[in-house]
Amino acid sequence: MEALSDRVVRVAPDERPSLDELSGQTVFAVFEQASGCEIFLGLVTAAQVSARPGRIFADLLLQPPPPPLSADAPLEEGWRRLQKEQGGALAVIDSDGRFVGAVTPFSLLGAALRETRRLQAGIERQSARFRQRLDRLAEHTARLRRLREESKQLLSQAAETGLEQQLLQSALEHLVSLVGARYGALILLDADGKISDFLYTGIDPETAAAIGRLPTGKGLLGDFLLEKGVIRLTDMERHPRAAGFPPGHPPMHSLLAALIRCDGKVQGRVYLCDREDGEPFDCGDQRLVEEFADIMGMAVFLLRQRLLSHQQAVELKVATRVFENSAEGILVTDADKRIILVNRALITITGYSREELIGQTPRIFSSGHHGEDFYRQMWQSINATGQWQGEIWNRRKNGSVYPEWLRITAISDAEGEVTHYVAVFSDLSEYAVRRQGMERLIHYDHLTELPNRLMFRTELRQAIRRCHFNGRQMALLMLDLDRFKVINDTLGHQVGDRLLQQVSRRLQHCLRKREAPRMGDTVARLSGDEFTIILNDLEMPEDAITVAEKILARFRRPFVLGEIERSVTVSIGMVLYPAQAETLDELISRADMAMYHAKQAGRNRFCLYDPALHEGIQRRQMLENYLYNALERRQFEIHYQPQVSLRDGRIVGLEALLRWRHPEHGLINPAEFIPLLEETGLIEPVGVWVLQQVGRDYRQCLGALGETDFPVAVNVSARQLAPSLIGQVAAVLKDNALEPHCLKLELTESAAMDDPARTLSLFDSLQELGVGVCIDDFGTGYSSLAYLARLPIAALKIDRSFIGNMMTHTEDREVVSAIVALAHNLGIQVIAEGVETPSQWRALREMGCDVAQGYLCSRPVPLAQLADIDRTVWEV
Ligand SMILES: Nc1nc2c(ncn2[C@@H]2O[C@H](COP(=O)(O)O[C@H]3[C@@H](O)[C@H](n4cnc5c(=O)[nH]c(N)nc54)O[C@@H]3COP(=O)(O)O)[C@@H](O)[C@H]2O)c(=O)[nH]1
Fold first, then answer.
1. What ipTM was predicted for this assembly?
2. Which superfamily is assigned to 8-103 in CATH?
3. Among the four residues 370, 453, 835, 862, which has the most C-beta atoms within 10 Å?
């Protein structure tokens, strides 16, 4: 159809051609009209018209007419037919035989030219496309080449350097520029599949942080690490899987991601987003990224291997250093127990050289101290548990034997087969020497070198066992020096220590020595001035009494304490085993009871345990139980004892003394319950009650005696010496509208010396308050004169033991006289307590003592009886 001539002119058979219209290319198609339809008769060319001018077309038609050409016939056929027919034109009909046009050599040539041009254009297009492809291929090949070159570099760096992060980062940057992506990231996983590294390029750090923290299983990025293969997505905005981006994530149009595998495991993922040119990622990009991911896998593998071997090398180096520099001796044997490795410490300890030891067995160190059994048990333990440790005696090269603490560990391979044994030991020679010293420290008293309480209990336990074994008796003696505190306090601790050392030697001289098979006796120091003696293998109980008497006799000789000589006595309690006690604790407590009894009975004596002593202890316990409720049951009361001026016989004060009246047991002796109050701490609330009661009684006391103004002394225990005491005293004064001088506090000398700094500060506060303080029982403690002078003391009360003896013992009289002089020198008043006789009264008055208190004047009496005191007795 394309070859049809456009110069075809329709004519009728009887028409005559017009020569004006005629051109060389014109073709006339002759149609006859018949019954309303057109019948094609044939073609007449311009050449035919020119050859027979003046003729009508019917005459010019070729007879027979050449067969028409089919409209779908190829150009070549038309060309061939035209040459054959020599007519110069051929009619063309369609499949229904209808005339559609005509072809001429000219029209055919035109069509052929057009076709050729079209073909050329097609070829040109194709070749342009081909050229383009070739270019792209060349580019891809170049990229691949670059990638490979860079990969080679990457791998060799990975094998040589430890800079994993920098290396991977620069590799990623290369990939991104190679592919021309906008940004890219690389995620590495640790052994647990968690993100260990997140490297990125082209993304700002905040976004990267959000992406890098993304949990798995949340949207595309969440799923990202779980995805098994390559991901290549385009048109991400509309992609259903693109949900779950963190807020602020840069818009992403296309994504290309590949797995990084190494050693058959997924080690991470590399991914690129958006090409710079806006095109989606293509297959070439994908191949590139996959290839890159493979290389990454190898690089990561190499890096990790390198890191591992580096670590192993470091560990090995450290282990070697530790091995060589360890202070403990170390040896390694093979499975046959042949020594293959020793360290420097082992060489130093044993004296053997390395060469002498390698190839030997540890038997080389055997000392002969341990029997077969010992080694059998040791190896049994190693075989069963893989290790053993304990003390063992080994021999050095020079033959000397030494103790060591040895740990042996069996080393097994993956199949559980023992491949080596490692022995680590420390030389205990020095420790053994120190241990002996430690043992002494633990079991012996450092001052007297006698066994201490711990050792004593061990010895006593053994003595009891021995009695069971040989059916003999033993005795336990508990000893306590009399008034040792006074020596300690007055002469100082050094003198006290010297005395204790001499006492221990004297006691040892009284005892039998241990001479096999005889057990011998044991003397131990339990604490302070408390000693104990175990008398073993007694023939008869009387032997124990003999020893006790011997001790008392030995003590009669004074102790020489440097320049000073002092007589010291001892109180001894004694109990027999098995006659008087059954258990160790029973023995100790009963010996204690007996000793307590010896003290109560006047000291410097021994007392054999008597079941009756038990009663005393039981009473103590009973009183203690009652004492807890005594205050709230209002069982306490105050008795008052007058203090009388030795100058004019006037009552110048009262001492308030606590009394306990039990409904069943009547008045309990203060010497019994006051120590109990102290021990239980009840003295603190009870002391407060005494102060308050005295405050309430004050005016009535004065009224009963017809006096107007004097102080009432209240005893204060050491346990009450706290800052709160000031507040309590101030409250009593305020509550009862009393002047401060109405109250006086009495504090024993030892309580005042207990904590001098605390005492000084309390006394200062009391002085500020205007309340005077009196030092009680003066002469029984150890007061520093300088210290005493610093205390704001109102009075000193001389202990009644001195007053009681002053008429018969010159020494005590001199003490009293010295105290009076001393106190007066310091401007302090002196009170003598325990004045019972007129002769004491007179003697004290002659010495210049200020005040007397004692049964001579009056016993302590309840407030109600104060008015009845007979004053004529002391008005001498
Ligand atoms: N912390 C407190 N201690 C108190 C309190 N009340 C008393 N005590 C102390 O108890 C100890 C025993 O006291 P007590 O049995 O009352 O004995 C006092 C007098 O009865 C007794 N005394 C007085 N004159 C004589 C005498 O001529 N002969 C003689 N044998 N004893 C006599 O002396 C005790 C007074 O002691 P002191 O206080 O040292 O002046 C005793 O230590 C009390 O201190 C209390 O409320 N709190």
1. 0.93
2. CBS-domain (3.10.580.10)
3. 835
